[in-house]
Write a structure and sequence with these properties.
Blueprint (H helix, E strand, L loop, with lengths): L8 E5 L9 H15 L3 E7 L17 E6 L2 E6 L9 H20 L5 E6 L4 H12 L3 E5 L5 H5 L7 H16 L2 E4 L2 H9 L7 E3 L16 H7 L5 E6 L8 H8 L7 E6 L5 H10 L5 E4 L7 H6 L3 E5 L13 H7 L4 E4 L3 H9 L2 E3 L5 H13 L1 H17 L2 H15 L1
Parallel strand pairs: 1-2, 1-5, 2-4, 5-6, 6-7, 7-8, 9-10, 9-12, 10-11, 12-13, 13-14
Antiparallel strand pairs: 3-4
């Protein structure tokens, strides 16, 4: 017999959800799936899957309202203005339209608690509005320090608009019954800005250890991509303004070892620019592929030797922990990390890879060669991956967040 707590009804608002494969979609889906297993009644309000190309996935339409069930999760897809993940004004219109539609869809649902996740920032506005009208508690899941991050990538400059958005941001943190941050650094940032430490919890990202597990290289895929005998460095994820992939591509012109090959898989605002740059530099040591379904990611991870995780050099990104380090570690793949702060601390604590100073070409190439040429270091990194993955098991993290939600209710 299920306890009263475990049968609570959760309304989750998120702009991204499977079949989309980015980090927010994956985290939300895996958490919600575990909550359903624990007896919770979970409804997700999202939009038609379209990230990052801004094209609705096959089998879906951008309707006013569409309902489906995925692994016991009731999924309601609402209309939104859809655009590619580039162009600031259009993306803001995309996010605002989803927040508006999600608010109206949420008005007529039955639930005990609302969770609204960022990104995108405006989704949390819908969570706040529903909590006021329906008089239900709400939780702000903080995945990105927005609008601070858009200043960092140059999408907006400091001015009245940013100051106004930052006031709204702080107001939302104060109003939420709990803030669940994905890093301790996010928590410290909020505390330093006057948010009550008692209401901020930390639930990091992690990996699904059932999906991501060490396995032999897929030799057929290696042959298909012409990568037999190569030391493959893989980047699987969003090619965005924050990810510093232009720096990586420029650095590849200085990588003289013919055995090293870079595999970039995904799409995003910077993809066209990066591909054009590689063509301009006449690089033959990198391959670009379109996004792949989530269930295919382990197969592609199997053929890489090192997982690449870079970001631009900025104090803002010292608070970020790329979720790809957990999935790569679960597959036994060392990470070549170009991020300072929290992510670097984790990789160095477990010895699950090597870290280079963001946008430092000399350091990047030196660490790359060390992972390729020093078998002892590579072996120790693989051992570190196993320990890291064990401590960041997504199931355990989902359980931790469910306990937080139960306390709120």
């Amino acid at each position: 017999m299920k306890s009263h707590k475990r049968s609570m009804k959760i309304l989750f608002l998120t702009d991204n959800f499977p079949p989309e494969t980015n980090a927010p979609a994956t985290r939300t889906y895996e958490h919600c799936k575990e909550w359903v297993k624990k007896g919770a009644d979970v409804t997700v309000i999202t939009c038609a899957p379209n990230f990052p190309q801004g094209k609705v996935y096959a089998g879906y339409k951008n309707r006013l309202h569409h309902k489906e069930t995925i692994d016991g999760i009731e999924v309601i897809r609402v209309w939104s203005y859809i655009t590619a993940n580039k162009g600031f004004a259009k993306r803001v219109l995309d996010y605002l339209s989803f927040a508006h539609s999600a608010f109206w869809a949420g008005l007529f649902r039955d639930y005990d608690l609302i969770v609204a996740t960022s990104p995108q920032f405006f989704t949390t506005w819908a969570g706040w509005g529903l909590s006021k009208i329906r008089r239900k508690p709400w939780v702000f899941e903080l995945r990105d320090l927005w609008p601070e991050s858009i200043k960092t990538v140059g999408a907006m400059k400091q001015g009245r608009a940013i100051e106004w958005l930052e006031k709204i941001e702080l107001g939302l943190y104060r109003d939420a019954d709990r803030v669940v941050a994905v890093t301790e650094a996010f928590r410290q940032n909020l505390i330093s800005r006057g948010i009550d430490a008692e209401k901020i919890e930390v639930v990091t990202n992690g990996a699904n250890l059932e999906l991501y597990t060490p396995r032999p290289k897929d030799e057929r895929l290696l042959r298909q991509l012409g990568l037999e005998g190569k030391f493959v460095v893989g980047y699987i994820g969003t090619h965005g303004m924050a990810h510093s992939l232009d720096f990586i591509v420029r650095s590849l012109a200085r990588v003289s070892d013919p055995e090293i090959h870079f595999l970039f898989i995904g799409d995003g605002a910077a993809k066209e620019q990066i591909v054009a740059l590689a063509r301009e530099l006449q690089l033959n040591n990198c391959t670009f592929l379109d996004p792949i379904p989530k269930e295919e990611v382990p197969r592609y991870l199997s053929i890489i030797d090192v997982s690449l995780a870079p970001l631009k050099k900025s104090d803002t990104f010292k608070t970020v922990i790329p979720s790809k380090i957990f999935e790569a570690s679960a597959m036994g793949k060392p990470t070549l990390l170009g991020v300072e702060g929290q992510a670097q601390e984790i990789i160095e604590k477990y010895g699950a890879g090597l870290c280079f100073e963001p946008e430092n070409e000399k350091d990047f190439i030196e660490k790359l060669y060390r992972l390729k040429d020093d078998g002892e270091i590579y072996k120790k990194c693989k051992e570190g991956c196993e320990s890291l993955a064990h401590d960041y098991d997504r199931k355990l993290l989902a359980e931790k967040m469910l306990e937080i939600l139960e306390k709120v209710v």
